[in-house]
Amino acid sequence: MDLTFITQFLNEDLGIDIVQFLNKDLGTDLTEEAILYILGGGVFFFLLSIFFLIALYRLLAKKGDGEEISEKGTDKQLAKLEKAHLKRQKQEEKEQKALQEKKNEARLSQIAEEERLIQEKLTKIEEERRQTKVLQSDLIPDQEETPAEPASFMERLKQGMAKTRSNLIEGIGGIVLGKKEIDEDTLDDLEELLYTADIGPETTNRIIEVLHHKLARNELNDPKTLRITVQEEIIKIMEKSYPSATVDHTKPLVLLFIGVNGVGKTTTIGKIAAQYQQAGKRVLMGAGDTFRAAAIEQLEEWSKRANSDFVSKKAGSDPSSVMYETVSKAIQENYDVVICDTAGRLHTKANLMEELKKMIRVIKKVIPDAPHEIFLVLDATTGQNAIFQVREFREIAEITGLIITKLDGTAKGGVVIGIVNEFDIPVRYIGVGESIQDLQPFNASEFTESLFT
Ligand SMILES: Nc1nc2c(ncn2[C@@H]2O[C@H](COP(=O)(O)OP(=O)(O)O)[C@@H](O)[C@H]2O)c(=O)[nH]1
Ligand SMILES: [Mg+2]
């Protein structure tokens, strides 16, 4: 191998004469060839060791990398495991939560169901209690019915109207107390009083307007004139008259009673039946309130008390078929008066309308001009609610007369004035108690008298 390039490189490029340096400067005795081999070997070993070092370095580096890589891989795996664990944990939590929610829901609906059952039981108890009360008061002959000295109807009416009267008269007295003359403030106070006396907004406005006119014309100077003007205006309202109703020559005379639950329909039917019977008429009752068995029993008891006959079907039957049977029987057996009871506790107005319309249609099938009277029964103690009921029922049936019950002891008797003023339907009867003689034909002037004296 030609190694002269080494000496050439040392000599020419670095300026070192290696032969001279070794032999002369260091005193060795080496041939140029030997020096060249030594140098060549040196370079060879140098290059070889560099090569080894590089290889070693790379080997170590690779090992390091590997360790790092495998460390990285483990971390990744750990993170993955951690993530999966978290996911599973979350899933479990979610399932646990859903399960708890389901449990809560089930518990809630169980509680709601329990509540509903309790409510149902309470309603049933209340209904039974009420019915027992109604039946007791209706079945057990009333001791008060035959008092030693029976008070006249007018006396009972006055007694019954005592609260309404004192509210109105004492109320007006209180407003004008200590006043020498009447002004707008006085009229405002009076307006409020009339509202609270259940006269109704329309009628109150009518009375107040008249007073305003009088005040403007200087015709309302003192408290006495104010009281007299109110009284006169109420008398004017109550003066409305209608042709007498009962078609005496009609046979059978068919009367249909309508109105909301509890106003006194069945009781009033019993009282009217008793009065017809006392007048020598044969009366047949139809139990059109088929809603509850107790309602049928109540009418049956009244029919016994009133010595009249009675047609019924089992609870839940179609009231129209009861109407049909009652009216047909009345014709066949020559009854003078037919009185039909109805239910007032239907859930919706549409239902009530359809059922009543059907009943009227069925009655007309047997007697085309019947029912000869459709009486709407109103409870005076409900105050202005009675006015709303007239409006509602007027849409359902052609009401021919109103009956206002429970005028005994109520402070809301003023509602009769509102009803007379607002509707062109005659008030035919008023009730002032639970016994037979406590129902009388309505007499407007007697009623007005009961309001002021
Ligand atoms: N104080 C009083 N109670 C009455 C009068 N008319 C009816 N009642 C009572 O009102 C309650 C309901 O009467 P009821 O005839 O069953 O009403 P219906 O649901 O409309 O048939 C009963 O307890 C009756 O005794 C009345 O003029 N004065
Ligand atoms: Mg009834």
Question: What can you tell me about this protein's structure?
Answer:
The structure is a single chain. The protein is built from 15 helices and eight strands. It has 453 residues and is an alpha/beta fold. It is elongated and about 175 Å long. An eight-stranded mixed beta sheet has the order 3-2-4-1-5-6-7-8, with helices on both faces. The chain has three domains: 125 residues; 83 residues, Up-down Bundle (Four Helix Bundle (Hemerythrin (Met), subunit A)), CATH 1.20.120.140; 200 residues, Rossmann fold (3-Layer(aba) Sandwich).
Bound molecules: guanosine-5'-diphosphate, magnesium ion
- Relative helix content: 55-70%
The overall average pLDDT, rounded, is 84
The coarse overall form would be elongated
Number of strands: 8
CATH class of the largest domain: Alpha Beta
The total count of helices amounts to: 15
Structural domains: how many:
3
At CATH level 3, the topology of the largest domain is Rossmann fold
In spatial order, strands of the major sheet run: 3-2-4-1-5-6-7-8
Supply Rg: 54 Å
Give a short account of the largest sheet: 8 strands, mixed
CATH homology superfamily name of the largest domain: P-loop containing nucleotide triphosphate hydrolases
State the low-pLDDT regions, or none.
134-148
Spell the H/E element sequence: HHHHHHHHEHEHEHEHEHEHEEH
The CATH architecture of the largest domain would be 3-Layer(aba) Sandwich
Class from helix and strand fractions: alpha/beta
| Strand coverage percent | 5-15%
* End-to-end separation: 158 Å
